[in-house]
Specification:
By secondary structure, the protein is mainly α. Helix content is about 60%, strand content about 5%. It starts with a helix and ends in a 6-residue tail after the last helix.
């Protein structure tokens, strides 16, 4: 059990920064999409909010422009709360819809297989808490609002995003260092096949692939090679 836990932890540490960045980006893109449901009718929304192509490009800060429902270029506390409430309501509705489909009688084999796939997908991608690694504008409002004027601006959100990204990278490095040292049984700064097989068996089948210099060991650099250098 301890070996399996260590293996999972090391794999998580190796990809921590990449996963953290992906999570923040996907959550904030979802924020932009879900907040649209709580905004004004199309005829009343500021035209700038209709730039959906721009939001789909993946900018996690600019996606939050849709929280600005009155079009004044800022996000108030009330707008932040309304946007996140709308997000949660949409998640709850989708989860309820999936549950209803899962409970419905299976009339055809194909439909039954499809429903099983939907349930499996729902289990992997359930609603995420606002307190994760993305933007929680309500809980972090005061921290983001550095000039204390009661509004969140694009520059304040960019600064917050940059700070949090750096914190995630630093945490990923700390976790990786801890897990690597625990797997490095003889303390020589590299992992042999025996050490990998014993401490991180899930990496064993990919040992040769990861061992780029073919020296029979996995170095820190080899294990970190796939991580984004930012």
């Amino acid at each position: 059990m301890q070996t399996k836990t260590l293996a999972a932890a090391l794999l998580a540490a190796i990809t921590f920064s990449m996963a953290g960045a992906g999570f923040a980006q996907s959550q904030t893109r979802a924020a932009g999409s879900d907040a649209a449901a709580a905004s004004k009718p199309a005829g009343e929304r500021p035209r700038a909010h209709g730039m959906r192509g721009h939001h789909r490009m993946g900018n996690p800060v600019d996606a939050l422009a849709r929280f600005d429902t009155d079009g004044d270029g800022r996000i108030s506390r009330a707008e932040a709360q309304a946007g996140q409430d709308a997000m949660q309501a949409r998640r709850d509705a989708k989860r309820a819809e999936r549950g209803a489909r899962a409970d419905a009688p299976r009339r055809e084999g194909a439909r039954s297989a499809e429903a099983r796939g939907e349930r499996a997908q729902a289990g992997r991608g359930g609603p995420r808490a606002h307190g994760g690694r993305g933007f929680d504008l309500v809980a972090n409002f005061d921290a983001i609002d550095t000039n204390r004027d009661g509004y969140l601006t694009r520059s304040e959100l960019r600064a917050w995003h940059t700070t949090k990204a750096a914190e995630r990278r630093a945490e990923g490095e700390r976790r990786f260092d801890t897990m690597f040292r625990e797997a490095d049984l003889n303390g020589d700064g590299k992992l042999s096949r025996v050490e990998v097989s014993e401490k991180v068996p899930r990496l064993a089948e990919r040992f040769a692939w990861l061992d780029e210099n073919r020296d029979g060991f996995l170095s820190r650099e080899e294990l970190q090679a796939g991580r984004p250098q930012r």
